[in-house]
C-alpha cells in the first residue's frame, strides 16, 4: 500500500486543498499587502520581502486588482531579468501576483482568435453528445498537446463516466469507464466551479513553500491560484496511473460542474497562460453546446415518447382486451421507456415482456406498489432499498417505474431497469485492460471497484419525461376503455 492509509481515504472531503501553504514550482508567487509591499513569496531565488511589487515587475496593479473579483491578466512583465506572463488576484487582505514562463510567439492575436472561431463552429457541427465529446477531446488535445484527453461527465451521485477521448501515444483507454465520486472529492468539485483551469505540470515536483515573516501567510487562500500545490493524495493517484502531468478544465453549466476535460501526459508538461485562457474559452463554448443539446434532447425525448405512445395505444383500440394488448405491445412498451422489461398485473393475471423478475416476485412488486402507484407514478432506481426481498432480483430490477390503472380490478403497469453495474458488465468490464499495480489503493482498477460498490443495486435514473409518459399511457388506456364502454352501451340501447 502507498503512504496513505484507510483513514486518509474517508477524510478526502475534508482536506483543505485551498490552503496548501506552497505552490508548484513552474512559476513564482508574489504576495503583497493592499499597498503593494511584498510580504510573502514562493519560488523566487531572491528574497523580495519588503520590496514594492510595482518595482519588481515594472507594473503597478494594486488598484486594478483590488477592485475586481477573480483573476486579472496583467500581460507580459520582466521579473529578475526574465519575461513572464503575469496574472493577479485578491486573496482577502492580500494581492497575489503569479508569474509563469512566457512562450515566445504565442499571443492572443488575430490568427488565434480566428482559430477560436473555427473551433466553435466545429463543435457546433457535431451531432450527438457522444460526437460532441469526441470532437471536444480532439480539440483540447490540439490545444494542450497532452497525450490522453478525456471528456468526463459527472453522473448521479457525483460518480462519473468518460464520454469522449483522444489519445496520441500508447496510453490505455478509459473510454466509457466509470469512476466513483470519491476520486474527485466534494471540496475539489466546489473549487473547480470557481477556478476553471488547473495544471499539474510535473507529479514529481517538490512544493515551494510560501516564505514570509508572518506565519499567517502559510494559510493564505489559494482558491484562485494557478500554481496552488496539489493534494498529495491526488499526486499519488496520478503516479499510480503512470501519469507525469495532468491538466483539467471545468465544464460549468448554470453554475453547476457538469464535468471536466481531463488531460494526461506521459512526461512533465506546462501550459502557457495563452493556452490556459484558450482552454477556458473553449470549455465555456463546450458547456454552451452541451446545454443546448440537453435542452433539445429533453424536447426530442418528449416528442419521441408522445409519438410512440400514440402508436402503442392504437393497438389497444383494435384489440380485444388488455391481455391481447400486452401480448402484442409489451416489448414496445418496454422499448418506449428504455426499460429492460415491462410487466403488467391484473388480479391473478401476470404478463411480462423482456427481462422481469420471476412471476412470484412480480406479484410481490405489484402488491407493494399497487396503492402508492394509483396516486402518482412509483419511481425508484434502487428498488432493493425500497422493498424488502427485492435484493434477490436487483440484477434485473433495480429500477422500477410503476403506475396503477384504477379500474374495478386494478391493473399495475411496471417497467424494470437492470442494475447499472450489470449493464456496464454486459458492455465489458471497462477496467479489464488497464494496467495497475496490485498493491495500490488509489488507482483506476480500485476506483472501478469502489464505483461498483456505490452503484450496487442501482439502475440508471428515470427521466422526468419518462415518468410523465407513464402517467399519460394510463390516461390514454382509460380513455380507450371508456370509449369502448360507451360504444357497447350505445349498441345495447
Ligand atoms: C482531484 N481527481 C482530481 C482531479 C481529477 C481527478 C481530474 C482534478 C485534478 C487534475 O486535473 O488532475 C480524477 N482524473 C480523475 C478521474 C479521471 C481522471 C476520475 O483522469 C478519469 C478519467 N482521489 C481519489 C481519492 C481521493 C482523491 C480516494 O481517488 C481522496 C482521498 C482526492 N482528487 C483528490 C483530491 C483532488 C483530486 C484531493 C484535488 C486535487 C487538487 O486540486 O489539489
Rounded Rg: 29 Å
Structural class: alpha+beta
Query: What is the end-to-end distance?
Result: 84 Å
Q: What is the CATH topology of the largest domain?
A: Beta-Lactamase
pLDDT under 50 segments (min length 5)?
1-9
- The CATH H-level superfamily of the largest domain is GAF domain
User: Strand content of the residues, in percent?
Assistant: 15-25%
Q: Summarize model confidence as the mean pLDDT.
A: 89
Bound molecules: biliverdine IX alpha
- The CATH architecture name of the largest domain reads 2-Layer Sandwich
Largest sheet: 6 strands, antiparallel
Number of discrete domains: 2
User: Helix count?
Assistant: 15
Give the overall shape, derived from the CA principal axes: elongated
Number of strands: 19
For the record, the CATH class of the largest domain is: Alpha Beta
The percent of residues in helical segments reads: 25-40%
